[in-house]
Write a structure and sequence with these properties.
By secondary structure, the protein is α+β, with helices and mostly antiparallel strands. The protein is built from two helices and eight strands. An eight-stranded mixed sheet has the order 2-3-4-1-5-8-7-6, covered by helices on one side.
Length: about 120
C-alpha cells in the first residue's frame, strides 16, 4: 500500500508563514534549501515542507507526497494516465530520496511522488 509520507505547503510569502507556524505551534522549521524549510512533527507523523508557490505554477497549495517503489516508473505511469508533470524526477539533497510532482488530470492540484534514495 502506498501511504502519505510528507506534505508541502506552498505560499506566496513563505517567510511570513514560517514565522507564524513557529510562533503559533512552537515548531522549528529548519532550512533545507534556498527558500524552503522542513519541519518534523515526530517519528510517527509525516513531516512537512514550506516554500514558495513557484514550484506549483504560482498557485498557493498543499501538496501531499505518496511513497512509491520506483519514482521513474510511477512518474511515467502517472503521465500515461493523463497527469501533467510539474516537477520531473529529482534527487533530494543529503540522501533524502527522490521526488516528482504531478498535476492531477482535470484539476489544478499537484500530488507528489517520493521514493527512498
Amino acid at each position: 500500500m502506498h501511504g502519505l509520507v510528507h506534505f508541502e505547503v506552498n505560499v506566496n510569502k513563505p517567510e511570513e508563514a514560517k514565522s507564524f507556524l513557529e510562533g503559533m505551534f512552537g515548531w522549528t522549521l529548519q532550512p533545507a534549501m534556498e527558500g524552503y524549510w522542513m519541519c518534523s512533527l515526530g517519528d510517527d507523523q509525516p513531516g512537512f515542507g514550506l516554500g514558495g508557490c513557484e514550484s506549483m505554477g504560482g498557485n498557493e497549495s498543499v501538496c501531499g507526497y505518496i511513497e512509491v517503489d520506483d519514482i521513474n516508473a510511477a512518474t511515467k505511469k502517472a503521465e500515461s494516465l493523463g497527469a501533467t508533470i510539474i516537477q520531473p524526477v529529482m534527487e533530494l539533497p543529503e540522501g533524502h530520496g527522490n521526488i516528482s510532482v504531478i498535476m492531477l488530470p482535470g484539476s489544478n492540484q499537484g500530488l507528489g511522488l517520493w521514493s527512498k534514495g
